[in-house]
Amino acid sequence: MWKENSTARSRKSEKEAVPKAVVLRWGHRPSRDARLTTHVALAARALGASGLILSDVEDQKIKETVDEVTQFWGGTFFFEMGIPWRKAVSDWKTKNGTVVHLTAYGENVETSDVLHRIEASGKSVLVIVGSQKVPAEFFSEAVSDFNVAIGNQPHSECAGLAVFLDRFFRGKELARSFQSWKVSIVPQRRGKRIVKKKNRDIGFFRKEI
Amino acid sequence: MWKENSTARSRKSEKEAVPKAVVLRWGHRPSRDARLTTHVALAARALGASGLILSDVEDQKIKETVDEVTQFWGGTFFFEMGIPWRKAVSDWKTKNGTVVHLTAYGENVETSDVLHRIEASGKSVLVIVGSQKVPAEFFSEAVSDFNVAIGNQPHSECAGLAVFLDRFFRGKELARSFQSWKVSIVPQRRGKRIVKKKNRDIGFFRKEI
User: Fold this and answer.
1) Residue A157 near residue A131, CB atoms below 8 Å
2) In B, which residues are within 8 Å of A35 by CB distance?
3) Which of B153, B179, B181, B183 to mutate to test the interface with A (most CBs of A within 10 A)?
4) A175 or A8: which carries more pLDDT confidence?
5) What is the ipTM of this complex?
6) Is A65 in contact with A175 (CB distance < 8 Å)?
């Protein structure tokens, strides 16, 4: 009879456990960052994150936009706001999650083994993305378990988050189906094809993002 | 003596040729899209594109920001603007390039073989990203050779572009070095480390993006 050894068991359990990702958006300024934060949230949803925490401030308009997208296009993406970032981080750590701070100063996701170490932890990740210069504290062990650079060049937190999630989920997030959709796209080589759920007054999502 | 057959030759030349990517940003509205277009341009640069064409309109402020980043952080990224999109596309096709239109309606980059087909063409790509609803014509053969979806969910052109470039360049773009930099980041597990070129009055790039 074949018996699993501990390594095989450990591999199996790693395989079975599907680590999740939640995004923490820090430093949002409602007047200035509205559109970018919306893009960050929708990218998070489309690229497999379970939800986004808009820390320290509230922005009802963005919440409405993101929740409407989820309502129309499906899935269970959550959008929380107003939670102090320290509390969000400590809650996450209490639940045995790991914290990844995305920063151009961190370990390069391509040239270092940082992603491998994150994966090896087997933990779900809280991904911190700033929208302005972050407190030095974010780089410390008290906050981040990993400081990760999507390349060491200045660019966009939205772009960085997207690449991080795509690599973290190994691309599989783009093949996921979103449950309970009212509207869904059928991929086409040319043109647009949308399917709408019948027998429902779905209105139509026309808001420009 | 071993002789290359035509397949081997073709594979070899595909390997030797390094296809390039240039981004065409369509539909930019200076008042509304300034920050997002800046993010798109900087993401394009950081993720290996050779340059960005801001079609149909001019936006001197964005050009200055992007050119300043290139001047400080290195590389040869170009930022052109005001070129009519039809001209940009036809010029690209005349130079035997292929045109990729990023759209949530297109072929899913994860579940279809579209990226493989783009790679197999061996051609450099012009990647069209819209910032508002694009003309139906963009989906036609007259414009796009491929309509590619970074997942079939609505999200962000900045995020979509980032994932496309990361996959197109197979991640290697994040390991590239940028030549002639004045300022460069040395990746760290914790904290920030910047190297500045000596004996140059470099000022310092402090602009918030």
Assistant:
1) yes
2) 32, 35-36
3) B153
4) A175
5) 0.89
6) no
